[in-house]
Amino acid sequence: MNLLIVEDEARLADALRQIVTAEKYRADVVYNGRDGLDYALAGDYDAVILDVMLPGLDGFSVAKQLRANKLATPVLMLTARDELADKITGLDCGADDYMTKPFAPEELLARLRALTRRQGEVVLSELSFADISLALGDNVLRRGDKTVRLGFKEREIMKILMSGGDHITPKETLISKVWGDESEAVDNTVEAHISFLRKKLIFLRADTRIETVRKLGYRLEAHA
Ligand code: CA
Questions:
Q1: Is the pTM of the predicted complex or chain greater than 0.85?
Q2: Measured on CA atoms in the order 190, 195, 200, 205, is the torsion positive or negative?
């Protein structure tokens, strides 16, 4: 685990570093908010331990700017005991968890583990069904070594079908989720996109097919 510690009290910063390095984690330590922000944005950290009261830029502002820069790194905020208002402000500005000083080393480590685990679960970069997988980041449908690029609406349809596994997805569900309730999309539009997707599955030589379930909708099936 690679951590960033932002704490202006040198003795506490040192104690934090000792606690985490004893667990064989790596840690960079900085002593003010401005450096904290720069390091967090430039580095590749699994979590940031961020004190609230810091010279210059305070911890709330740092957290807010990290989120404004679309940085998803979990933030654990530290502040003085019993400051409920701080806790609420901290969570409002994008912190993921909160810990009051003083704290036991075990509590810090448990919270870091929970935070980094939670992040791992949120990052869902790929869906799979039978022999195909869909990379959500770059809109690519894959079977073995073969890949094919999907259009935006094709990807959305595939995402819904793959999330549903072998359950039937009604055509109306596809229309409302992919085109929106207000849209003019009609059955033919959906059928056209399903037809494109079927051709792409054939191109991939996939076992997976999109079956039409008469009057009900669509479902994925694997024909080995
Ligand atoms: Ca402080």
A1: no
A2: positive
